[in-house]
Amino acid sequence: MKIDLTDTTASKINKALVQGRRAIGTPAVGMVLTMVIVTDEENAYDAIKAAEEASREHPSRTLVVIKRHARTPRDRTNSRLDAEVRVGADSGAGETVVLRTYGEVSDHADSVVLPLLLPDAPVVVWWPVDAPEVPAKDPLGALAQRRITDMYAVEAPLTALQARVNSYAPGDTDLAWTRLTPWRSMLAAALDQARTKVISAAVESEADNPSAELLARWLGARLEVPVERVVTAGPVVTAVRLGTKNGEIVIDRPEGPLATLSLPGQPSRTLALKVRSTSELIAEELRRLDADEMYAVALRGESGTKETPRHV
Amino acid sequence: MTELEALPDGTPQDAATTPEGSGDTTVEPVGVKAVDVTAVDVKAEAKSNGPVPVADWENPLRDPRDRRLPRIAGPSGLVIFGVTGDLSRKKLMPAVYDLANRGLLPPGFSLVGFARRDWEDEDFAQIVHDSVKEHARTPFREEVWQQLAEGMRFIPGTFDDDTAFKQLRSAIEELDAARGTSGNYAFYLSVPPKFFPKVVQQLKRHGLASPPEGSWRRAVIEKPFGHDLESARELNALVHDVFDPEQVFRIDHYLGKETVQNILALRFANQMYEPIWNRSYVDHVQITMAEDIGIGGRAGYYDGIGSARDVIQNHLLQLMALTAMEEPIAFDAESLLTEKLKVLKSVKLPENLGEHTVRGQYAAAWQGGEKVRGYLQEEGIDPKSTTDTYAAVKLEVDNRRWAGVPFYLRTGKRLGRRVTEIAVVFQRAPHSPFDSTATEELGQNAIVIRVQPDEGMTVRFGSKVPGTSMEIRDVTMDFAYGESFTESSPEAYERLILDVLLGDANLFPRHQEVEESWKVLDPIEEYWETHGKPAQYPSGSWGPKEADEMLARDGRSWRRP
């Protein structure tokens, strides 16, 4: 069911949540976390959909904060909060509150969110777009254990990446990193099989791809070898080559979801490396809510990397 | 169990769902890094087609802090005997696909089917394709399918056909060369018990059971693990003769269920349950596994076996062991075995088996809006059969924690609905400040672990009824975590197949447990054989009235699950 509240406050929203839950006959809640999505009107639909799908795995209360832009100075002085409370079938496996803020209250969205957080449950903030400069210092970010940003959604990803390095605080994570998990697990599995020291490495990807950069930094940090970046036509990451004294370990994904794994002295095999949907990425993010130390390692990378852009 | 039961209907005789056998699964918990290096092959030398592995090698890309990286099985293949059976089509093949789809299978993973069919590899691939499309949990993706399909082989033949096993051997060698499976194979025996010795001996004869240096060969077997202690021991001897006891994995698919694994989390990761998890607070425990279906086409297998051997001996005693056991010193196969064995060994049977055990047979009746046949009218069943389709037993665990607390185990076919649960029922409060009218409707507190369907937990306690007068009534609080259709909530078979490939034996009962369980059940079966006959109960009910009387004698009653 859906309850619309116009020009409202957090306590009225709380009442509506209780009312909604009673109406559908499930007064007990088994929700495990509060998910705060900070977005604009344009990206709200997709983000809510992804969060609802992810909530089937992690039943949660989703608070969507949409900051509305006022077009006239007069509107800007008018402060207003509208809310849309969805429970039951309209809201995945949990509850969703869509908050629209107008005027000054937009700068104080944390005052609306704080009373609506589930008692004693972890809080996750996700900025599908327009992440703050320093997520951990953002008023909403400061409420959360886990802060999810997405470098795919910015104009200059590599600049953003540098900003993430500088502002990193435990609990930060980025979907550009989440997208790498299948690649990373296949690389680790390949190395499990090769069982040999890696002496060189190269990551091939489209230009300015933040995932590729993170992957290169992670490989550099873990393997302690310089990692070459090769620019290709894409899409996204197209290949990773690890040089060993027996030959090269290559995962090659020229296009589409089908990749080839080659190990020295072994027949090459195909493997499926698909690009995952946002809801799957979010579900993965929510599986662990403690600090992702490997992300920090990947962000910082190693100094011994060299840049040799080459166009293919 | 219920879902397994649903499968075998119409199972072709060369591919049943219920292989017989036993073995041992004392595999050291193998870390992700070491999946392809078990204790046997530490001195792994150069494989025929691989690079020279470095001793003490640690994968720099793995780090305990990196918890996103899933456990992926090492290079390996799975050989399924009786691949045309229902279990294989409805559970195993979809589970393999789901694992591949979740990226948990190694690149080059190969699937070999063995059955008495005149098929080519492509025909087999088509069968797998169809069963995956119909039964897989995760969406069908062409690229995942391609990855799998390249490694599919089919060997036509019967189990005494030497040519077929020679063919199997060369197929495995071919796959090692073409797909890099490195000689690591699990043999899944999805065949009826009577074929079991044959298959195992053929594997031995053709050198398939002994792994080449630096690789492993594992056997996966399904219940029944014998039909009594003696036959179970025979089977163990038979399998252990061919496979290293540590490489034999017995599937009890209940143990692959999330909720069952959650019993241990609930008990040992929390502070609030363990203090009351004993005879001072617990009145009794009821473990129920009810099915709403009949025996279907399984007459041949079921008659003479019955529900107690089919369900209590394995599933229910395992659930009971997990519920009653002490805290293991670590969450690994060895420690779990130690604790479960202690429980099974301290099980005490009631002195008067006639009063504290009940068996029954379903009779014709209306069940859930459908008119169904009774057991004795089922096709292929002797009208004078005394096989039980319902069994209830009272057991005690004779140790300090549980002395005097009865564990009631019951299972049956054609009961009210399909449900499996463990209910820990607590004693009444020793003193009540409320007068008796206020608490008239108050029952006993209970913690119910719902194993299937609707996996989760229920807590039942008393609460004041809103209003002016003091009136206390039972309420329940439900907990359900996640839902079964998400990618990360795997089917039991998925989890178990992955564990086999990883060599992780935590969730597999071992031959000592199997034998101890038979020691519990054998005296009951012997008593039943010589005393009376099964009571009749109408299909769709909750069992014979004798079962209700059995609890009434103790001043208790069955929960309606």
Features:
heterodimer; A: 312 residues; alpha/beta; 2 domains; 8-stranded mixed sheet; 6-stranded mixed sheet; disordered C terminus; B: 561 residues; Rossmann fold; Dihydrodipicolinate Reductase, domain 2; 6-stranded parallel sheet; globular
Write a brief structural summary.
The complex is a heterodimer of chains A (312) and B (561). Chain A is an alpha/beta fold.
How would you explain this protein's 3D organization?
The complex is a heterodimer of chains A (312) and B (561). Chain A is of the alpha/beta class. Chain A has helices at residues 10-23, 41-54, 73-77, 109-113, 157-167, 175-178, 181-194, 210-223, 278-287, 293-300, and strands at residues 2-5, 33-39, 60-67, 80-87, 94-102, 123-126, 146-149, 172-174, 198-205, 227-231, 237-244, 247-252, 258-262, 269-272. In chain A, helix 2 links the parallel strand 2 (33-39) and strand 3 (60-67). The radius of gyration of chain A is 22 Å and the shape is elongated. In chain A, 45% of the residues are buried. Chain B is α/β, with parallel strands linked by helices. Helices cover 31% and strands 19% of the residues of chain B. Chain B has helices at residues 2-6, 86-101, 121-135, 142-149, 162-179, 196-205, 229-242, 258-268, 299-302, 306-324, 333-345, 353-356, 492-502, 511-530, 545-552; strands at residues 77-81, 110-115, 152-156, 185-189, 217-222, 248-251, 282-290, 347-348, 357-363, 365-367, 370-372, 390-397, 406-412, 419-426, 446-452, 456-464, 472-479, 535-538. In chain B, strands 7, 8, 9, 12, 13, 14, 15, 16, 17 and 18 form a ten-stranded mixed β-sheet that branches. In chain B, strand 16 (456-464) and strand 17 form a beta hairpin. In chain B, helix 7 (229-242) packs antiparallel against helix 14 (511-530) and helix 10 crosses helix 14 (511-530). The longest helix of chain B has 20 residues, at 511-530. Residues 1-54 of chain B have low confidence and may be disordered. Chains A and B meet through helix 7, helix 8, strand 14 and helix 9 of A and helix 4, helix 5 and strand 17 of B. Chain A: Residues 51-164 form the Glucose-6-phosphate dehydrogenase assembly protein OpcA N-terminal domain. Chain A: This is Glucose-6-phosphate dehydrogenase assembly protein OpcA. Chain A: It comes from Streptomyces olivochromogenes.
